[in-house]
């Protein structure tokens, strides 16, 4: 499939796909006219890359992990990297949960009519 079709099917911009190629996360063959062509598994690969980016992984970390994902075989380095990333995400989730609890406290104060904060009028 060509780059436009991959972009449509994966929900990712053409620009992002080109970036993935620059970062060696995605590979394409080139036609004689220079057009990119991707294999059947490219959509799933792009979706995985997107998921890993959304989890906060860097392109370098993703590049290091993709061979493990492709082959199903990991070494000590990729196992340690995976565990470290999971721990980082766990810490991030805990920090977000604490921020949400604090926001809930502020909301409770803001909607309580007995609190000064709730009685103030916002002047536009």
From TrEMBL:
It comes from Kineosporia corallincola. This is MerR family transcriptional regulator. The keyword DNA-binding applies. SMART domains: HTH_MERR. It comes from the Bacteria. Keywords: DNA-binding. CDD domains: HTH_MerR-like_sg3 (cd01282). Residues 1-68 form the HTH merR-type domain. The keyword Metal-binding does not apply.
